Amino acid sequence: MDEVLEKIRQQFNYGPYPRYPLEKSPKDDREFLWIHNVTTPYYLRYRQRPPQDLVILDAGCGSGYKALALALANPGAKIVGIDFSPNSVDLAIKRFEFHGLSNYEFHVLPIDQVGELGLTFDYINCDEVLYLMPDPVATLATFKQVLKPLGILRVNVHNQYQREMYFKVQEFFGLLGLMQDNPEEFELKTVQEIMGQLNDRCELKRITWSKKYEGELNDHISEFILMNCLLQGDKGFTIPQIFGCLEEAGLEFIEMVAWPKWRIKSLFKDPENLPTVLTLALAEATPMEVLHLVNLLHPGERLLDLWCGHPNAEPTVVSQGQAMVSLHPQLRNETVQQAWQAHLQGGRPLILSDYLKFPVQGALQIEKVEIDAIALGALWPLFEGTQSFESLLQRWLQLYPRDLLTLEPVPVEIARTMLRELLLFLEQSLYVLLTVE
Description:
Blueprint: H1 3-14, H2 30-36, H3 39-46, E1 55-59, H4 65-73, E2 78-83, H5 86-98, E3 104-108, E4 121-126, H6 136-146, E5 147-159, H7 160-175, H8 185-197, H9 203-208, H10 219-229, E6 236-237, H11 239-249, E7 252-256, H12 276-284, H13 287-297, E8 303-309, E9 323-327, H14 334-345, E10 350-351, E11 370-371, H15 373-379, E12 387-388, H16 389-399, H17 412-427, E13 432-436
Parallel strand pairs: 1-2, 1-4, 2-3, 4-5, 5-6
Antiparallel strand pairs: 5-8, 7-8, 9-12, 9-13, 10-11
Helix pairs in contact: 2-4, 6-11, 8-10, 14-15, 15-16, 16-17
């Protein structure tokens, strides 16, 4: 094994990541599950719902918390986790056993040997791993070999611009010899001592440190220091560099995981009236170039987190049937349904973004997604399952039978337009999915 990789293995064997207790579960974290639900990227890519019986790989599964999220977000999927840290894999197995899950398998296995499993995957989650690999292109090419033709790969790397000061921290402590071997308690306490004694005006300390990381070592403090100040093999990338890696590996960019945060218009006071020079440049820019401009202006994301897949992948064309509507699976839960029903019965509008903030959460211009009581009533059957557009239109006509000004019956085509506009508005944030079946 590569010397750097062996150091990384030792580090994660000493401190498995993430250090969440076994009983902690993301089952009520709708935004976290939204990211890990295969429906989200699959719909963005193909405008279809994903197939049944998914086989999902969590590459570099660590202690299994994100594998647990993948299992909860995709009921019925088979979860396969691999990691080169035996201690991490042991924790992942215990985590799944604790939560009573059965359709899984975990292996102590380096990523470059994943082909030995003899499996292909509908979805591969490679989270917080790629930036540690000695040859990211080779790692991506390995994933491509085991990714099904319509499969989707999530990968991320550290953002060079956002992470720059942490790389300086690592270089500083590396020069002091604290990263020569696997960092353990002595190295952790030494980092605490040095950072604590630095003058608060010191730029490196001001940007990378907080008093909450001082005091007696615990799991939270140790994890922060290991993952930021003493992380073996850590490196950063720019947007052009990660796109270059995708191209070399023969993969095609789909979308950023938190795509609203990467919309350049959100950085300006008047999004619809951008400076002329910028408007002209954007008209000719590629998606990669636009994302690079955003990252230069506002490198706010620690990770360059994206979905990709095989180039020119196309699903099987189905015969044109009727338009169908469904709620995103992360909205079809008891909490949202109860709130929906209460607002519907009270004739009050519902702020849907209060119940699924992602992807608008964290964007520079946060929009409130609100739907009125008539819309709540028209879309209520979606909690039972997928509905045809025409059946929802009939409910709409019953709830909104007359023009509120003229009291004349609302023409069917006007009602159709109103419902279509509502659904297209909700689809922008993937609250609803629109398909043809």
